[in-house]
Every structure is written in C-alpha cells, then in structure tokens.
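Posting this for the archive.
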Amino acid sequence: MPLKKWSLEENEIIKRYWNIPMRDLLEKLPGRNSKTIYWKISQLGENRQTYKRYTVDEDVFIKANYKTIGNFEIGRKIKRTAKSISKRMIVLGLRRNGDDFKELAKSNRGCYKKGCVSKIAFPLGVLQLVYDSKLDRHFYNIKTEKGFIRFSRYLYELFNNEKLKDTDIVFHADGNSLNLLKENLIKITRKQLLYENNFKDEAFVKRIFRIQNPELIDNIIKNHHDLIQVKKQSFLLNKKIKENDISRKA
C-alpha cells in the first residue's frame, strides 16, 4: 500500500495551525491521525509543545512546599502527576535531603510510611483502566485481596482453572489489550514475549530502521518483506558471534 501523499491544502493547514490543540487539528485533517500529524509537523521543522507548561505560580508553590509535602500531594493540589512534579523539581534544581524525607514521613502527606493505610480504599472486584506509556496501550486491572493485578491474568486463571507462575505472561493474540475473550488470551514465556516485542515485523522496523510513521512502517512491511528478513538474520548472527566471543574470553 503506497503512502498517502500530503496535499497542498493539508500542508497549508499544518503550516498555519500546527500549534493549535490536536483535537482541533484532527477535525481540520479528517483523513489523518495524530501520529502522522506529529511526524509532518517535525518534517516542517516545527517543535510542537506536547505537554502543559508550568506556570510561575505552580513553580512558586513547588518551591515553597517540596520539603514538607510529597510529590503526589503537590500534584493533587496543582493538578499534576507525581512523576511530572519529580521532573519539574530537577529542572528547578530542587532536591530533598535526609531530614526532608523524615519530615515527609512524619506528616505522611503524599509519602507513606510502614503501617499506614491509604485513604483511598477500592472495593474487591473493581476494575481500573490504566495506560502503559512505553507500550502505548491501555489495560484493565482488577482489585483482589492481594491488591491490583492484571485483569487478563485473572481471567486466564478463571477460564482455564490454572494458577499462573510469576514467569508466565498472558498475551493478547490479536494485539488488542482490551480484548479479554477467552480465545484471545494465550499463555507464553518471557522469551516468547521478548520476541513479540522486538522481532515481530512492526516492532523490528521501528527499532532497526528508527521509523515511527505508521504509514511508512506499513509500506516497508508490505513491499520490503525480504529486506526485513535479511536484517533479522543479520541481527541474530551478530548476536550469536558476540555471545561466542564472550564465552571464549570467559
């Protein structure tokens, strides 16, 4: 399938509106998705802001409270995540010392200590939709007596009347992590998961050719399959040679 070329009209829209909210840009470009739009914006040399900038008031609040309030509590007050607060502290040159952590443990605001129970108590059986940014996928977790676990593991054990080991992975056969039908849940090993995440055609093209454009990836897989296979064989051969060299030196 050839790549869909960008029309002059689409290029003009990107040049004029590249910095407006993505939802508005998608409405102006109904035949495109956010990934291809980001790619086109970068091609035009623009550096689009993909995160909400910190305001002066937010920085002042962090500086005034980071020694007495934990990142989670700071984030709750200014509507940010704890991870975002942690990164912002690095930018601002803020760092807690041992005494600061002791004070946080005493107040227990945004910082848990041994024996403390969270004020947010989820009932057993509640489902929680979570997002994995590394894999760019959504998953369901379920609350059990042992805490939250992946819902796909819970269902696999229920469907097959089998207790999974820690080394077992429940894999979604169709690649849709929200498809929880029995036939879509397959038990695999970590070694097999490594292959799925690194040597399946789409993942391999992304990693080896350093390409993120989904249309270009699809084009390479369909029209240059032999090249991908040669690259895979070359990669595995080089890996085997390195392993043999290490074993000889040892």
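The mean pLDDT is 80. The first helix runs from residue 8 to 17.
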